[in-house]
Structure formats: structure tokens, C-alpha cells
Amino acid sequence: MKLESTGERVIVEDRPTSIEDYVIYMGHIATYRFAERFAHGRRVLDHGCGSGYGAALLAETARDVQAVDVDEDAIDHARQRFQRGNLTFAHIQPTAPLPYPDRAFDTVVSFQVFEHVRSVAHYLSETRRVLEPGGTLLLATPDRSMRLFPLQKPWNRWHIREYSARMLAEVLSRFFCQVEILNMSGRRDVIDIELRRFRKFKWLTLPATLPIVPDPLRVWLLNMQHRLRGATRRPRMRHNPDFDESAFVIGPGLQPSLNLVAIARA
């Protein structure tokens, strides 16, 4: 089975063919590198692991990593591609309880998943249940303040909702006793590649993303736009980029902000 890369799924062995795809990939790697300090020597759950490359990175220093995803093909790929004695992959159903006992983990990571979650209460309550008291949830999700106009719905057809820092803090605080919201920014020439993509799509997808458009119609219109436009032509890389994940930085109040990174304590 060959798992295909998409804008929502990164396949580490597939070399990015565009500079935009490379920026997205390096941003993902930077988030997992940030998480390493919370995973070292600990029991870790990757709640929405995708193709598994991030869970494999964490397993290099974690005591144990359990990685789950609702995409069975992605889990099959991860099992074939990444094999370590302290790394296990499992397929889950989105509305079923996690297949772990209470207090099974010291750290849960959830990167670029929350914007896809329909049942937020179920997702967060299950995450909270499997964390030890005092354990940590690290959650990364796109920052709507840079991606969207006020009240605009997501132009990414797979995203159910996108969050501002205030929105994210409010929803996490219902389940966790301490929540800190950080921002991902970085080297300005690198960040500008993503900002140009944001500006393009938030204009291009109007009026399908107006707040009055029902979600089923929004998704249908975005799918139609995608088919009519064909595969988005991104600037192809003519040479090897001069940056890696170190071009990104995560911290409080950083602007311009590509992603929000929450640290929530159980």
C-alpha cells in the first residue's frame, strides 16, 4: 500500500516538491521537536498520529509511545514504516473511548488534529481521562487570526473549525486546570511563504466561506472549487531550501503566528 501525501497528511519519505509543502513539513517537525522535552523518559500518547513520523521522533527519547489515528490506511503505513520496541500504532474510531485505562500517560500530543474534531467534548474528555494528574497535553492547531477574516469559516475543506487563542483557551479550560497558549512564528522570509498562501485562499474561497453558509454547502462549494481549479500549483523548489525546522520558534506572543500551541495541565 502506498499512502499518498496531501495537504492534511505528511509522508516523511516523500520529498516535498514545492516550497510551500516544505514549509508545512518543517513546521510539523518543529512542533514535534518542541514536544521532545515533554516526552523524554515519559509515557506518551500521540492522539492523531497520521503517518507516524512524529510518534517515531518522540519514541527516540520517550519511555513508551502509543500512537492512534482514525485513518486505518495511515496506521497501516505507520506500522510498516516505523518499528521500535517502545512504539505501538493503533486504529481508533472517532466517537469510541480510547483503548487505554485511566491515567495511562504522562504526556498526550495532538498536532494539527483539533481543527478536524467534530466532537470536541469527547476528544478532550478522553484525553483528560488517560492523563496522569499533573500530566500534560500539548496541542497544536492553526491560528485562525492569520488564516481567516473575522467570522470567516475555514477555507480548508477538511477543517471543521479553526481557533483563535482566546477560543482555544476557553475550550481547553473546561477540561484542564491550567492552560497556556503559545504561538509558532519564525524566520520572516519562511513565515511569509505561509502568509502568502493564507491571503490567497481566504480571498479565493469567498463567498463559500462566509459565516452564513451552512457547513455542508461550504464543503460542497470548496470541493467544486478544488475540482475546477485542479491541483493547486505551488511554486516548485528549484534548489534545496536554506532552512530546516530551526527556522521556526514557539513561544508566548510571537507574531506573525502560523499555529497555536497549547500546554494544558491535567
Protein architecture, described:
With 266 residues, the chain is an alpha/beta fold. The chain has one domain (19-232, 253-265): 3-Layer(aba) Sandwich (Rossmann fold). Helices cover 35% and strands 21% of the residues. It has eight helices and eight strands, in the order H-E-H-E-H-E-E-H-E-H-H-E-H-H-E-E. It has helices at residues 19-39, 53-59, 72-81, 120-130, 144-147, 165-173, 188-204, 215-229, and strands spanning 43-47, 64-69, 87-91, 105-111, 131-142, 178-186, 248-251, 259-265. Strands 3-2-1-4-5-8-6-7 form an eight-stranded mixed beta sheet. Strand 1 (43-47), helix 2 (53-59) and strand 2 (64-69) form a beta-alpha-beta unit. The longest helix is centred in the N-terminal third of the chain and has 21 residues, at 19-39. It is globular and about 45 Å long. The model has no long low-confidence stretch (mean pLDDT 93).
What's the structural blueprint in terms of helices and strands?
Elements: H1 19-39, E1 43-47, H2 53-59, E2 64-69, H3 72-81, E3 87-91, E4 105-111, H4 120-130, E5 131-142, H5 144-147, H6 165-173, E6 178-186, H7 188-204, H8 215-229, E7 248-251, E8 259-265
Parallel strand pairs: 1-2, 1-4, 2-3, 4-5
Antiparallel strand pairs: 5-8, 6-7, 6-8
Helix pairs in contact: 1-2, 1-7
